[in-house]
From TrEMBL:
Catalyzes the conversion of dethiobiotin (DTB) to biotin by the insertion of a sulfur atom into dethiobiotin via a radical-based mechanism. This is Biotin synthase. [2Fe-2S] cluster binds at residues 117, 177, 248. Its cofactor is [4Fe-4S] cluster; [2Fe-2S] cluster. Pathway: Cofactor biosynthesis; biotin biosynthesis; biotin from 7,8-diaminononanoate: step 2/2. The gene is bioB. It catalyses: (4R,5S)-dethiobiotin + (sulfur carrier)-SH + 2 reduced [2Fe-2S]-[ferredoxin] + 2 S-adenosyl-L-methionine = (sulfur carrier)-H + biotin + 2 5'-deoxyadenosine + 2 L-methionine + 2 oxidized [2Fe-2S]-[ferredoxin].
Amino acid sequence: MDKQTLLELYYLELDKLLAVAKEKTKNEVEFCSLISARTGKCGEGCKYCAQSSYYMTNIPTHPLVETQKVIEIAKEAKANGATRFAIVTSGRGPLDEDMPRFCEMISEINKLGLKSCASIGILKDGQAQMLKKAGLVRFHHNINTCRSYHSSITHTHTYDDRLDTIKKVKEAGLELCCGVIIGMGETVEQRVEMALELAQIQPESIPFNILTPIKGTPFENYGDKIDEENILRTAAIFKIANPNSIVRFAGGRKARLSKENMELALENCVEGILIGNYLTTIGITPEQDRETLKKLGKTLCV
């Protein structure tokens, strides 16, 4: 699908746009969950992020947790209906000395009957293969925004740095979870570019984050950069451009969408939910999400 066609779809009447997306959307919704296994003190300068050491955000920080803590949180996630569980860490990428611990965590997550995921940053040569050998199912690495806007959100790594890790992940035979954060000042055209760039990457899962402005970050006053209707339009365009990928609600939906619009998205274009809390913000309870799915007549992936 080309850019002009997607732009024309974007500007359709909202109900018509959602109807097009719904044709490509399954009735089944998948739950996943995560642990912030290392929080804060990140050396990257991403302007949206509370965990960057460049900014004074006063979030709680901690070093890499022990494997037992990962097991405890993973068990809770499974009890809440998650079928996938992710280890998420701050920092540019995994240190060599941390790789054995990551591999141990992956093995323990798999033993629980969950599908293991990891979001541990930019990978060096050989690290994707190590994770695959340990049993990792899926690696998460967002493009965050489109190529044309990337230099506006960070100066410490490039869009191509992110694509390089995505290439390593695919070459290692791992599944890929790759998405964006919208509402960071990008234009409508750039949201369409994101959708098309993801279509080139073809990830199994597309996390759909909406910026939650964090006090102390350069984007702390960016809460007005996208409204609810345009959030829905963007989610629909992502599904239309990526019919074989699961568009997944991730960070920001509680703060940025009404209950009614969340339901519209789940009814028409969103097929996955990151349940519970996020890295530095509070989410919606799994019980509330299950109630919403029941109301919409959706089935939960098991």
